[in-house]
Amino acid sequence: MRILVTGGAGFIGANFVHHCVREHPDDEVVVLDALTYAGDLASLAPVRDVVEVVEGDVADAALVDGLVAGSDAVVHFAAESHNDNSLADPWPFVHTNLVGTYVLLEAVRRHGVRLHHVSTDEVFGELPLDSPDRFDEHTAYDPSSPYSATKAGSDLLVRAWVRSFGVRATLSNCSNNYGPYQHVEKFVPRQVTEILLGRRPRLYGTGEHVRDWIHVEDHVAAVRLVLDRGEQGRTYMVGADGERTNRHVVETLLRLAGRDPDDYDRVPDRPGHDLRYAIDATRLRETLGWRPRYDDVEAGLAATLAWYREHEEWWRPHKEATEARYRALGR
Q1: Alpha-carbon distance values, 274 to 194, 204, 209, 245 (Å)
Q2: What b/e readout covers 263-293, taking b as 16+ CB neighbours within 10 angstroms?
C-alpha cells in the first residue's frame, strides 16, 4: 500500500512509520507533518531514506487533497495533544483536531480512500478510583479539557462521515502511551529526563490519578492490525491492562534508576485532571487477535528509561524550553 501518515513526525505517528517500514517493507509511506514543536524530523532519521516527508498543515485543503488522491490509505495521527497547552490556548486544538479532521474527511470522501482515525480514551472523561468499570466502545463521551473535547469532536465527525457519506473508516481510542520519541513535555519522558539529569521529578497533586499505560510499540501494532483487518465503521479500544497511579510510575522510574523512590516533589494539580482511565480491549483481542508485547508495565518503563539514557541527543534540545513553560505555569 501507499500510506499517508498524518502527524508522522510526532511521537505515536513516528513509531507507526518505523513499524510499517520494519514489518511491511513493500509499503510506500508518506508523512504529512506541520513540524511544530512536537514534530521532530530526528524521530524519522533511521527511516528517512525510505520515507517521503511533506511539511504542511493537515487543515490545508489543497495540500491534503493532492496527498490523499495518491494514497491507498490514510492513518490520521495529526493532533494537538497536551492538556496543559489546551488550557492555556485552545485554538490550535480546534484548528488541528477539528478543522484538520474535517479537511481530511472531505479528501478521503472525494477520492474513496480508506481512513483510520486515531483517538484517545480521554474523550470519555474519568472513571471513579474505586470502580471496576472500564471504557469500552459504547461508553458515552464526557471530555474534560479543550484537548479531549476537540478529540471527541473529531471522533464524531468521522462517525458522521461514515454514516452519512459511506467513508471507509475505522477508529481507535487508546490509553496513555509511553516509549521512544515521546516529547519531554509528557508525563513519562518528563520524569525520565529529570531523573537522568539528576533532578527531582514533579508530581501533580496527590499522584493518585490512575492511567492505563501502554507501550507505544503495542499501540502502533494494534493500529496497523485495525487498518489491515478492522471492520469498516467500527471503533476499537486499545489498552494493555496497565493501570498504575502516576505516583507508582514516578517511584518505579526512580527505583529503576537506582534512586530513592521518594525523591520527588509535589506540585499543584492542574484544572480538570481526570481521576482514572481504564480500557476494555476485548473487541480488539477477540476479533483481531491482538496481544501486547509489553504486558509488564515495569519492564516497559525500564526499556523506556534505557532508550532515553541512550538518546540524549534526541531529547536534550527540547528539555530546557519545556521546563521553562512548566515553571511559568507553576508546575
Answers
A1: 24, 12, 7, 12
A2: ebeeeeeeebebebbbbbbebbbeeeebebe
Catalytic residue among 147, 181, 236, 308: 147
The conformational region for residue 167 under phi > 0 = left, psi -120 to 50 = alpha, else beta, is beta
CA-to-CA dists, residue 126 to 71, 86, 112, 276, angstroms: 37, 18, 36, 5
Task: Write down the pTM of the prediction.
Answer: 0.96
In the set 122, 251, 280, 323, the catalytic residue is 122
Phi, then psi, of 107 in degrees rounded to 5? -70, -45
In the three-class reduction of DSSP (H, G, I as helix; E, B as strand; rest coil), residue 37 is classed as: coil
Tell me the domain boundaries of the chain.
Answer: 2-178+215-238
In the predicted structure, residue 331 carries a pLDDT above the cut 90 = no
pLDDT of residue 328: 83
- Residue 37 among the catalytic residues: no
User: 5-9, 150-154, 205-209: which range is least confident on average?
Assistant: 205-209
Rg (CA), the chain: 19
**Is 90 exceeded by the pLDDT of residue 15?**
yes
Categorise residue 76: left if φ over 0, alpha if ψ from -120 to 50, beta otherwise.
beta
Is-catalytic flag, 122? yes
CATH number of 2-178+215-238: 3.40.50.720
pLDDT at residue 330 greater than cutoff 80: no
**Residue written as grid cell 480538570:** 272
pLDDT digits (tens, 9 = 90+) for 44-83: 999 999 999 999 999 999 999 999 999 999 999 999 987 7
Catalytic residue among 57, 121, 185, 274: 121
Residue 51: which H helix or E strand, with range? Answer: strand 51-55
Distance CA 73, CA 70 (A): 9
Q: Average pLDDT, whole number, for the chain?
A: 96
Residues near 328 by beta carbon (within 8 Å), at least 6 away in sequence: none
Give yes or no for a contact between 45 and 66, defined as CB atoms under 8 angstroms apart. no
Q: Which amino acid is at 172?
A: S
Output the nine-digit C-alpha cell for 90: 485552545
126 in catalytic set: no
